[in-house]
Structures are given as C-alpha cells and as structure tokens.
Specification:
The complex is a heterodimer of chains A (154) and B (279). Chain A is of the alpha+beta class. Helix content of chain A is 34%, strand content 15%. The longest helix of chain B has 17 residues. The chains are: A alpha+beta (154), B alpha+beta (279). The interface between A and B is medium-sized, with 29 and 31 residues.
C-alpha cells in the first residue's frame, strides 16, 4: 500500500507492506534511527513519537494508520539547530546513562508538558508510567523534566 | 515480531467497513489490543479493515437520558470529558487509568471491549454502569445489554460481521455516584483486580447498587451478592465489610504468576471495600 506522511515537516510518500509498523517504517524506510525499539510490545516506551501532536508508541501502530498524518520524531525536535529545552535539561541534569530510553522519554514528556506545563514530582512520575529506564533509577530524569518545565514556562 | 501478511483496507464510513468486512478479517480501531496479538501471531486475519479515520464514531454526545460514547473515542478523550466526569465519574476515571499516556492516546473503548481481555478495565466499569452496546451489521443496528455482552475469556456477543459503533451510559443516580479502583500489574498496567462501584442512595440508605470486577475470573462479572447485601442498608464500615465478603461468591477465581487464587480473592474483597467506601 502507498502512504503519504509528513515526517518532521517533510512530506514523504512510500510503498509499504500492510504489516509494517510505524517504528520499522521510520527506522528502515526513512533511516530515522533515533526512534528506538525496546520491548516491541508497547510496554517500554522507547519507540515513542508524536502523531498529530500526541505521544504514541510507534511499535504498536501500523504505518498505514498514520497515512495522511504528521509524525514528529526525536530528530525533528530541535528547531533551527537549537536543542529543545528538554534535550538541554536531560544533558544538564544527567537524565540519561546509556541513552537508549532517552528519545522515547523526551518525546513522551514534550507532549505531557503541553497538557500540564508545571507538573508536580508525583505527576511527572505518573506520566512516565509507560517509559522504562533501566539505568538511572528515574531520579535525574524527573529532575531534568522539572528543570525543562521551569525553563519552558519562564 | 512481525505480524503475518494481510491486506490493509481503509473504510471511510461504517457502511463501507461492513461491506468490506470478510469472514476472516478483523476491524482495526486503535490497534492497541489487536496489533500486539497479531505480532504474537495469536491473530492472523486475512485483512484488516481500518475504521480509525471515521470521525462519526469518535464523538461523545450528552443526550437526555444517556451519554453516548462513540466506539472510536480514545481513552484519553473519554478521561477528559466533562459530562462523563459529572454524570458517570467512574467512566472518566477508568479511562485515565488504562495503560499509560501513549496507550490512552490511541486505544479506543470499542476496540477494548471487542477484544474482551479478562484483565481489561472497561468491562467492569461498563457492567457497573448498566451500559448498552450499540452494534451495526449489514442488517441494521442492535443494542445489547452489557449483562449479555461479555461471554467469557476473550469472548463477547459480537458476531464476525458486526462492528460496535457506540456505548450508551445511562445518566442514573447510581452512575452519578460511582468510582473505579484497581490493583495494577506494574509493568503492563492491566488490572490484577479491578472493582467498579455505582451506588444510589436515598437518605443514606442504598437504593440501587451495581458492583463489578475485572481481572478476577475469565471474564468480568457483577458481584450480585455484594449488590444484594448492600441494598436497603447504609454504607457504614461494618455493613460494607460484611457485604464485601461475597466478592467472589460462585466465581472461578483465576490463578497466575502475578497472583494466586487465594490472593486474588482477598484483593477482590479489599478493592470492593475501598471502592464502596469512597461512595
């Protein structure tokens, strides 16, 4: 089947198999390997991207389901060569160790902060329910998100 | 994990979807139950009929007697709906407790109940809410009472040639005083035990009660022993305690590596007490 998707602001049209997931489409057809595949069962959140502005798990969406939609991946988050505040804060607050979960974390939280611009620590921890980190113990991820939220609402 | 090959069909209306739907096909809504099952090859449909772009089944409408939730409404949109928060708070509450933010952004109520996972949250809430399931087929629409909808392990009253189009929630006094609580499996966030309670009171006396569980048995069920024990009494701690002893009466309680039969039955009593005590 043929699909047309706007990915990080650029319109692309590709022929895909019906069974192609969005995560595979992004990584293998478009070489956008910043979207990671962790569990591949919609548990871990490493594959999180935005579809029409909403955070979703791209391993559990078929590419056909985003035909005609706008998709944003971690590669599309920086604007005009300037890092998104979340990217800066994750670096500043040491919100990552191996970095595997980081793109998914940042894509999830950039959507979450749209609906809740100044979350409490408890709300942040709740929001991370669908994103696993096996290195940090989450502490510095939460600190990075708090820091970014302050920067963004300043 | 790659699903078996299938044909991908897109429908622009329910009529079109019904016309496309072959015997070995499956309906694709949010895909958050179906796609994982297809990756494990537990489901290998000939074709998927994608109904996710049909806006007519995504609305939540506030009518005179009922609130009608389109089958394609996402958990996220249901959790934010002000009419549901007012008239049936447990419906908005459960929608915000399913999975995680990403899952709630895509998963739909219709898809979830068609799948009928024994640990899914919606079945308990819809049973407690006395909901009606509106189902379309080439022969027209039919309405199924929720008590007749969930038949067993991943089994419902839905036929292969039918599509759920909406769910009707009555604006009853019980639904206006309702809540949902669950003991969550921390990785999947499915319910190990979930209890939905809707209770109408008349001067402090229970006049109507619907209590339902998910996660406990091979299908969600209403705890009629608790309902009957509550009716006519007050909601004192003692009365709730006595009534909730019947949480799993006559029910085959599941046992798995998350919770043994004995522990699950215990949790059912605990979560019934906690839910009812909030009302």
């Amino acid at each position: 089947m043929e699909i047309t998707v706007k990915v990080n602001g650029k319109q692309v049209t590709r022929e895909v198999e019906g069974r192609t997931t969005l995560s595979t489409f992004l990584r293998e057809d478009l070489s956008l390997t910043g979207t990671h595949i962790g569990c591949d069962t919609s548990g871990c959140g490493a594959c999180t991207v935005h579809v029409d502005g909403k955070a979703v798990k791209s391993c559990t969406l078929l590419a056909g389901q985003v035909d005609g939609c706008e998709v944003k991946t971690i590669e599309g988050l920086a604007e005009n060569g300037k890092m998104h505040p979340l990217q800066d804060s994750f670096k500043e607050k040491h919100g990552l160790q191996c970095g595997f979960c980081t793109p998914g974390m940042i894509m999830l939280v950039s959507d979450f902060l749209e609906t809740n611009p100044s979350p409490s620590e408890d709300e942040i921890r709740h929001a991370l329910e669908g994103n696993f980190c096996r290195c940090t113990g989450y502490h510095n991820i939460v600190a990075a998100i708090k820091d970014a939220a302050e920067t963004m609402s300043a | 994990m790659i699903p078996a090959s299938f044909e991908y069909k897109k429908a622009n209306s329910i009529q079109e979807a019904l016309a496309m739907l072959g015997e070995d096909d499956k309906i694709l809504a949010g895909g958050h139950s179906l796609v994982p099952a297809m990756k494990l090859r537990l489901n290998m449909p000939e074709a998927l009929v994608d109904i996710s772009k049909i806006e007519a089944i995504q609305e939540i409408r506030n009518n005179d007697q009922t609130i009608t939730i389109g089958a394609g409404a996402t958990h996220a949109s249901i959790s934010r709906n002000e009419d549901l928060k007012k008239h049936a708070p447990m419906v908005a509450e459960v929608a915000g407790m399913i999975g995680d933010i990403q899952v709630r952004n895509r998963g739909t109520i219709g898809g979830s109940i068609a799948h009928a996972d024994p640990s899914a949250d919606w079945p308990a809430v819809l049973l407690a809410a006395d909901a009606k399931i509106v189902i379309a087929s080439a022969n027209g629409n039919r309405e199924v009472d929720v008590d007749q909808f969930f038949k067993g392990f991943y089994e419902t009253a839905l036929n292969d040639n039918e599509i759920i189009t909406s769910i009707k929630i009555p604006k009853s006094a019980a639904n206006a005083n309702s809540c949902y609580m669950k003991f969550v499996q921390p990785a999947s966030r499915f319910a190990i035990v979930g209890c939905a309670a809707a209770i109408a009171k008349d001067n402090g006396t229970v006049s109507a009660a619907r209590i339902a569980f998910t996660g406990v048995s091979d299908s969600a069920y209403r705890a009629k022993e608790i309902e009957n024990a509550l009716k006519g009494g007050d909601l004192s701690a003692d009365h709730i305690e006595t009534a909730c002893a019947g949480a799993t009466a006559g029910v085959d309680v599941m046992s798995d590596h998350f919770a043994s039969e004995k522990y699950r039955a215990h949790l059912a009593c605990v979560y019934a007490k906690r839910a009812i005590s909030r009302l």
